[in-house]
Amino acid sequence: MKLLIVGGGGREHALAWKLGADDPSAEIIAAPGNPGMAALGRCVAVAADDVAGLVALAKSERPDMVVIGPEAPLAAGLADSLRAAGIAAFGPSRAAARIESSKAFAKSLMREAGVPTARAVRCVDATAAKRAAQDFGAPVVIKASGLAAGKGVIVCTSMAEAEDAIHAMLLDDSFGAAGREVLVEEFMAGEELSLFAITDGTTVLPMLAAQDHKRLLDGDRGPNTGGMGAYAPVSLSSASLVEDAVERVFHPTLAALRASGAPFSGLLYAGLMLTSQGPRVVEFNCRFGDPETEAILPLLESSLLEPMLAVAQGTSLDGMELRWSNDFAVTTVVASAGYPDKPRRGMPIELPESRLNVYVFHAGTGLDASGNLIATGGRVFAVTAVAPTLADARRESVRIAESIVMEGKQLRTDIGWREQERGAGASRD
Q1: Which of 123, 214, 370, 385 has the most crowded CB, counting CB atoms within 10 A?
Q2: Cα–Cα distance, 427 to 233 (Å, whole number)
Q3: Structure pTM?
Q4: Which range among 145-154, 332-341, 374-383 shows the weakest confidence by mean pLDDT?
Q5: CB-CB contact of 204 with 400 (8 Å)
């Protein structure tokens, strides 16, 4: 078997690791990949947003499946182009990927399908957006409608903050094209869960829920980021809650996409807010989340390759199920100095020796002219530890993350703090 994985971050490294473990004889190709993925297969210097180059590479390599990691190539129609060339791809069509690439489209779809979510007003004019924010009152959420690398959501605790966010998006063009259309949205109080589901468009195969930590600093302080860590499982995610989410969120959303002429297949990710009125959708993503993927996959004991290949080849997921470890996983992100606003690049890196049940996924690394490992991105590593208790997993994850030698590195030491505050996270055996 030959697998082509598009992307070069921590999510793609985790996918390559798991798929390679499911079939050790598989040939893995990554485009563009990273030094960590190079240890698992072959990296080819084709950028993840180079649709024409990726299609040409796939035509040359003829993989059994192309796994598309990031959202940008999905929104650009890479899956459509691959299928048109007769190549099996795991990932939704460009039309279906609008569930993430346009928050305005997703909100309208949810409203029509009766999917529980926050009230929102779509705006392209700053004056109208400020009026909508006044109508909602603080706290209020301002969202860039387009793709903003996980940083386009601003929770505003005052009208002054809301006006600043609206000004940044609609007048200052701080978010580029992503922020030229915004949603002014009702604030939802509660805890957020990330719930992934593999789907063929009709059948839904839910995965373990995880919880992401967006703020840069311990105690959920500091600026918003693409994610500074995650843990799984989450005690608030009971079997009944997942079943409820499948029936009230995933199935109606998939039905609405089919009815709109954009059937969805691949990985549908629902960000859920657990409110006093029950779970409500914060937003959808059309692909595996990062860094939740790095926490979830080390706990998956059954094959990931089998259901992904079925979806890519257009066959049903009926009868398939996923089996999970009873352990906990904690992922600590190691970020470069200056992240998230002005991340430094080029710093040399020294990694500790590998340890059992600890996975160091490369998220933003490269090699210098001498072949030495250096930082090339804001989030540089995702360090996942698996252990019988949440406390043990966090302790080991932080220990290894702190032992990575990189000037100015940033990391959180409290991933999963809410879980431990409520007394959860003890051994599940």
Answers
A1: 385
A2: 12
A3: 0.95
A4: 145-154
A5: no
The residues facing 55 across adjacent strands are none
Q: Does the pLDDT of residue 429 top 70, yes or no?
A: no
CA–CA dist 365, 371 (Å, integer):
12
CA 17 to chain centre: 17
Q: Give the strand pairing for 27-32 and 2-7.
A: parallel
- Res. 150: pLDDT tops 90: no
Q: 176-210 burial string, b = 16+ CB within 10 Å, else e?
A: eebbebbbbbeebebeebbbbbbbbbebbbbbbbb
Query: Cα dihedral angle (279, 283, 288, 293), rounded to 10 degrees?
Result: -50
Residue carrying the six token digits 């040939």: 27
Q: At what angle do helices 103-113 and 251-259 cross, to 10 degrees?
A: 100
Q: Which of 226, 191, 222, 187 is nearest to 418 (CA)?
A: 191
Cα 351 to Cα 262: distance, rounded to the nearest angstrom: 44
Cβ 70 vs Cβ 33: under 8 Å? no
274-278-284-289 Cα dihedral, nearest 10 degrees: 30
By the 8 A CB rule, do 38 and 99 touch? no
Q: Quick one: CA torsion of 396, 290, 242, 429, rounded to 10 degrees?
A: -20
Give the mean model confidence (pLDDT) for residues 382-392.
97
Provide the token pair at 17. Answer: 């690791």
The DSSP symbol for 353 reads P
CA separation for the pair 272, 192 (Å, rounded): 5
Q: Are 182 and 143 in contact (CB under 8 A)?
A: yes
Q: Which of 46, 56, 53, 45 is nearest to 85 (CA)?
A: 56
Task: Say whether pLDDT at 72 is over 70.
Answer: yes
State the average pLDDT over residues 84-113: 96
Positive or negative: CA dihedral 196, 296, 152, 271 = positive
Angle 220-100-381 (CA atoms, 0-180°, nearest 5)? 45
Number of H helices, E strands in the chain: 15, 22
Which residues does 403 contact at the CB level (< 8 Å), separation at least 6? 352
Q: Which of 365, 360, 364 is nearest to 379 (CA)?
A: 364
Which domains does the chain possess? Answer: 2-93 (3.40.50.20), 125-180 (3.30.1490.20), 191-312 (3.30.470.20), 328-421 (3.90.600.10)
pLDDT of 160-215, one tens digit each? Answer: 999 999 999 999 988 898 889 999 999 999 999 999 999 999 999 999 999 999 99
